Amino acid sequence: MLQLQPPRFLPLPRRRLAGRRRRARPALALNSKWNLPDVNTDAVRERVRSWMSVARGAIADATHVARERASHKEDPEAGKKKQRKEVAVEEQAFVAVPEVTVEPLVDQGWLSLDAIVSIEQFARLNGFTGRQVQRIFEALAPKHLHNDARSLVEYSCFRYLSRDNSDLHSNLKELAFQKLVFVTMLAWEDPYKEDDSPLSSLDNYSVLGRLVGEDAFVRIAPAVAGVADVSTAHYLFRALVGAEKGLSFDLWTTYLAELLKVHHGRHRQTHQMGDNFLSDEQVLCIGSSKKRPVLKWEDNIAWPGNLTLTDKALYFEAIGLSGTKKPMRLDLTDQNSRVEKAKVGPFGSKLFDSAVTVSSGSTSDEWTLEFVDFSGETRRDVWLAFISEIISVYRFIREYGPGDNDPAIHDVYGAHKGKKRAVSSATNCIARLQSLQFIRRLYEEPAKLVQFYYLSNAPFGDVVLQTLAVKFWGGPLITKAKSSNHMSPQWQRSSEDPSSGVAHVYDVDGSVYLRKWMTSPSWASSHSANFWKNSSVKHGVILSKSLVVADKNLVEKAMVNCKEKSKVVERTQATIVAATIEGIPSNIDLFKELMLPFAIMAENFKKLQRWENPRSTTCCLLLIYTVIFRNMLSYVLPFTLMMMALSMLAVKGLKEQGRLGRSFGKVTIRDQPPSNTIQKILALKEAMASVENYLQNLNVSLLKIRTIFLAGQPEVR
Questions:
Q1: What are phi and psi of 643, to 5 degrees?
Q2: How many CA atoms lie within 13 A of 78 on its CB side?
């Protein structure tokens, strides 16, 4: 059991004198060897702080008990639940501060209260004091990080978290550990304090009303096993926060409580329904509800039933008049498995847009499942993300992982567990999405919350998948000594250059991913080669392949590029969506703005034709005559394309330098004022008149061209 509360010290028994009941006054002899300057002030200060901590804990407990009793007596029955909830939230938000041994003053300033509490608490969990952790960090970290408070917070936290290799951290069940992780995120976000007395506010230290930002959540939450993934942490934070400014402690504990319920429910459901499924499958989600049933469409007939998703397949138990039938199984591990949205309806009509089509290799193994949801398409989209993630993780295993019968899998320590690690990562993503669904904090695109499916469609996602493969299957090389005296396997770390194209790939901790496993075509891409050449850790303290203090691991580095390229794609999509505006006046304005460069070119050509600037017209004619008489017409098109390419490069360079201004290249469309039906009819009439004018001008131009080719004159008969 994790214990984060300070020890409750008992008072020492008083020594009674035989002759007198009164305590004897201490006497100081003139010849005594005890001097006041010899007293250890640090020891006295630490002992006083410990007593004050005990007193604060006792006073806080007594205050909460008294407040709860008073609320029971004074409040009516209708307000009891609300008062109890508020008291419970206050009690949960109160953090018991242990005896502080951290040196609060560093070169860059005073440590914040959050940093002091986080460092001290994790130091106790690691078996040290806060001051000892500071000294260890100064001995391990580079010189420029010795006084970096944020790096110290990361080290104290990551050192304890690196001891856990489970899929879900066991200490998440403890409220004290949930508080500590939340405090650590606050400390990472603001490790310094302006006040020069950082211990003055430890009396009533609480996280109630505090908010965690996105960067702190993305840095700390993925370090706790099962809470978040590096690749989807940004979208998870946005889904949790929604329209709020940050992540509150109440929302943080609610999310973790639902996450623990999901994992506990999986184990219970797997044991209860083990007879209906294969022994090596784990139940992930069950879709069965009287209010929101699941329908399986066959020959335009909908059959209600229970849908169960495991880590390998889908099971559907049809419900008939005589009860449930034998469950049908659809394998999701096949290489031809796919899932997509579908529309269903009676008599073959595409009426309801709430279904998915799942197939496994052949058309005979194709299911059409409708997820009835009267509140929208949320349920269908969530199940689409569930099924897509299972299909994507096995596609990832086939593309980036070694084969099951590959003998080289035994040459790398822990590589035989790589497939299990990948599947566990996918099931954890599904569990987090289920938790968000239960607390009604779903993201607008649930597919961005499941790791493998999102990366398979994201720009630069193939490189992130490569880093995940190195994380799952990478490990130290194992070599058997040839001498009979050394029969035990030994670990070997190669000294080859990780950036070379023909060598194995190495993780930040020296783990090896063999060259023969790089069968995916993505390894041969240029952006993949550039990434792996610059993938080494420049500075920082490496605690494991996933936890690096003051630097990023491979997955985090790849996600930086993926996130930047995703922003570019999102801006492009937003531009396309903005171009598809509604309304005739708005579309006319957009058309005019897009045709503005061509209109300017046409106007300049008309000026040349009218001899408004004789010098320009003369130069243009000389150039045309030179091209014709010198027989250089074949060079016109290549020269034009080359000049266009040079112009594009020049514009791009000037734009990156900021010399063209912010408004360059922007299309401005003014919002049309609201109008009634009569005004819309008048606008339509004006638009039709403009179209008629354009058609007349176009007909005149075509007639002129026809006359030139036929060498005649147009006549009206």
A1: -65, -35
A2: 0
Instruction: Return the domain boundaries, the chain.
Output: 44-72+80-92, 93-248, 581-636, 673-717
Burial class of residue 592 in the structure, from the number of CB atoms within 10 Å of its CB (0-12 exposed, 13-18 middle, 19+ buried) = exposed
> Are 548 and 537 contacting, i.e. CB atoms less than 8 angstroms apart?
yes
End-to-end CA distance of the chain: give it in Å, rounded: 103
CB-based contacts of 521, cutoff 8 Å, min separation 6: none
Number of H helices, E strands in the chain: 20, 20
Q: Is 611 exposed, middle or buried (0-12, 13-18, 19+ CB in 10 A)?
A: exposed
Report the distance separating Cα 369 and Cα 302, nearest Å: 9
Q: Global pTM? A: 0.71
CA-CA distance, 116 to 49, in Å (whole number)? 14
pLDDT for residue 127 is more than 60: yes
Mean pLDDT of all residues in the chain?
Answer: 79
Question: pLDDT above 90 covers what percent of the chain?
Answer: 42
Where residue 178 falls among pLDDT bands split at 50, 70, 90?
A: very high
Instruction: Give kind and range of the element (H or E) at residue 298.
Output: strand 294-298
Phi-psi category of residue 299: left, alpha or beta, with phi > 0 → left and psi -120 to 50 → alpha: left
CB 189 within 8 Å of CB 213: yes
H or E element: which one contains 283?
strand 283-287
Q: Which two tokens stand for residue 199?
A: 């211990």
Tokens describing residue 578: 């903005």
- pLDDT per residue as tens digits for the range 482-511: 333 333 333 343 434 444 444 789 999 999
Q: Which helix (H) or strand (E) holds 150?
A: helix 149-161
510, burial (CB in 10 Å: exposed 0-12, middle 13-18, buried 19+): middle
Give one DSSP letter per residue of 302-363, joined into a string: EEEEEEEEESSEEEEEEEETTEE-PPEEEES-STTEEEEEEEE-GGG---EEEEEEEEESEE
